[in-house]
Specification:
heterodimer; A: seven-stranded mixed beta sheet; about 30% helix; B: mainly alpha; 8 helices; elongated
Chain lengths: ~400, ~200
């Protein structure tokens, strides 16, 4: 079958690889009908995340049709059913899964010894996202093996198109969880850093949850335009002072809720700060750039909440812990507990409350994937979200 | 995507096109990947050269037969470090690359003084001059490419995302449409820690 394969830094190719097979009773094989390139795939593309190996198949945002199931899947899935696959692989039986903390499933990461070394404890297995999270082959392919398939799926109701539901596997519940864990009140100003796909979903979620003001911070004009379309006030941080604008919008008090939808590859508009982090990252004295985190801690209203859906992989430097502690800020973060939110979100899509396909700007075949990675990474051609059809 | 220009661009006579801007930063500037890599390479080169000049300024001065120039070379090291940081840290490195060209001119003027008699190491000075001229040429090429880079999106036809709300009605109408959703207590924390307004509601 054809698949997008990681060969090294900024080197992804559409290769022929062996078809996946059932390896465990709880496996299923999915014929992929649509997949997307996620912003966090770019951390792998640029090789900021450790643990990738040559030959790994990329992709954790995909959906398709069940073509084969193992004996242990039972009646949970039948051949021909349409499913979206959450990017977190879940057993559904461990202590964390039973509590709804699916992204820290204790059993699905088959390389848990690596995760334990890096993070102290294991987190869930993920599709196509390094060997720290299990080294599972990803979904930017014609077929994919889904482990624990009796639990690791979201069934697609009749009448909804692939593009309407594809993002239930990652960015929509990620934006939703980011907004939910910010505990949005009707009087809140919610500031969201990053107008990429997760930022866009977070904006819509914050609006639906009833925030008084939603403010989005980015520097890419077309992304800011899409943010405004979703009801956000925008700040172009290449042109304006984020601190001053947020203070203007909140009578000097700062936003009650701040959401980091950027993560480890943040760019600071302040040249010295950016250079400092780039140099430290290059000489391996830090792995992640914390520009957004620093700014959020600085501008957030005391007793406010910081919600962090943006992906971080390792160590950051110069964290203003004094401000964080003395302002009494609450930090909520984590990979998304996808299946915890999807029943509700499927209904909201089916009811017409929201159609997540608004974010798609580019559609291409799988063989154009390598080129699309570059387009997405370089934000060329007003690219915000790419959907690939195998 | 279409490469065609907007009607406004087409109506703009070539004679009125603005001159390339070498000195001002413009975050809309989007150079091609090759130019971007070249600029980054020059940024790292600046940092490497700066560290070398700071650490071995005295040795470099003696190698050039200009031992009194050691403090100047140390100062140039600081300049190189600042330029390197500027190139790597800014959203648009154009003014910093231009600053490198000015620095190159300063370096060349300094090294030229080493050709005066009596300097037994003029051949080293000539080698250094050759290297400086080569680097200056690269800097000039990079600065020209950056200054000519298109400004996006204003110089290209953009896709229109103004209608991409994702909502079935205007965003203002949809504000609060999901207030029926009850956040799980284990995600939002204990009730006593939530805002007073909510706790009393």
């Amino acid at each position: 079958m054809r698949a997008l394969v990681w060969h090294g830094t900024q080197d992804i190719r559409c290769d022929m690889v062996p078809d996946p097979t059932i390896e465990d009773d709880r496996d299923a094989i999915i014929k992929v009908t649509a997949c997307a390139i996620c912003g966090s795939d770019l951390h792998l593309y640029d090789h900021f995340m450790p643990g990738m190996e040559k030959g790994d198949v990329m992709g954790h945002e995909f959906m398709g049709e069940v073509v084969e199931t193992g004996k242990g899947v039972g009646g949970s899935l039948r051949k021909g059913e349409r499913v979206v696959i959450p990017f977190t692989i879940i057993c559904g039986q461990c202590d964390q899964c039973r509590r709804g903390f699916f992204s820290v499933c204790e059993r699905s990461n088959r390389n848990k010894h690596l995760a334990e070394k890096a993070f102290g404890h294991t987190t869930a297995g993920l599709f196509g996202y390094t060997h720290l999270t299990g080294g599972y082959q990803g979904g930017q392919a014609e077929y994919v093996r889904v482990p624990f398939a009796d639990k690791t799926h979201i069934k697609v109701p009749e009448g909804l198109s692939d593009e309407q539901v594809l993002f239930l596997g990652d960015i929509f519940p990620t934006g939703w969880q980011a907004a939910v864990q910010a505990d949005i009140q009707p009087t809140d100003t919610v500031a969201i850093w990053g107008a990429g796909p997760v930022g866009q979903m977070t904006i819509r979620s914050a609006i639906l949850l009833g925030a008084k003001q939603v403010v989005c911070i980015d520097s890419v004009p077309e992304r800011l335009e899409m943010a405004r379309a979703g009801g956000a006030i925008t700040i172009d941080n290449a042109q304006e002072s984020v601190v001053e604008r947020l203070n203007e919008l909140t009578s000097g008090k700062g936003p009650e809720k701040c959401i980091d939808a950027v993560g480890m590859e943040a760019h600071s508009p302040r040249a010295l700060e950016q250079a400092y982090d780039r140099v430290k990252q290059a000489v391996m004295l830090e792995s992640d750039r914390a520009n957004v985190l620093r700014e959020m801690i600085y501008v957030c209203r005391p007793a406010g909440i910081l919600s962090i859906p943006g992906v971080y992989g390792g160590l950051v430097d110069k964290m203003p812990m004094g401000a964080l502690m003395n302002k009494g800020l609450t930090v909520r973060t984590g990979q998304t507990h996808v299946n915890r939110w999807t029943d509700d979100l499927v209904k909201r899509i089916a009811d017409g409350q929201i159609d997540p396909s608004f974010v798609i700007t580019h559609r291409a075949g799988l063989e154009q994937g390598p080129e699309m990675y570059k387009t997405f990474r370089d934000k060329k051609d007003n690219c915000i979200k790419v959907v690939l059809r195998p | 995507m279409s490469e065609s220009t907007s009607p406004r661009d087409r109506s703009c006579p070539r004679a009125q096109m603005p001159l390339p801007n070498y000195l001002g930063a413009d975050s809309r500037r989007r150079p091609d990947p090759g130019t971007r890599v070249l600029a980054q390479g020059l940024g790292w080169f600046s940092i490497g050269l700066g560290l070398t000049e700071l650490a071995y300024g005295g040795a470099i001065a003696r190698w050039l037969g200009m031992p009194r120039a050691a403090p100047v070379i140390h100062a140039y090291g600081v300049r190189e470090l600042l330029q390197g940081a500027g190139i790597l840290g800014s959203s648009d490195p154009t003014p910093w690359i231009s600053a490198r060209i000015a620095g190159d001119a300063l370096d060349i003027a300094t090294v030229l003084s080493g050709l005066e008699d009596p300097n037994p190491r003029k051949h080293n000075v000539l080698l250094a001059l050759g290297a400086l001229i080569g680097v200056t040429a690269v800097d000039v090429i990079c600065a020209q490419s950056l200054a000519k880079a298109p400004l996006e999106p204003s110089q290209k036809v953009r896709q229109d995302y103004r209608r991409r709300s994702g909502f079935r009605q205007r965003a203002e109408v949809m504000r609060g449409a999901a207030r029926d959703f009850t956040p799980p207590p284990d995600v939002i924390g204990p009730e006593a820690m939530r805002p007073w307004r909510s706790a009393k509601a």
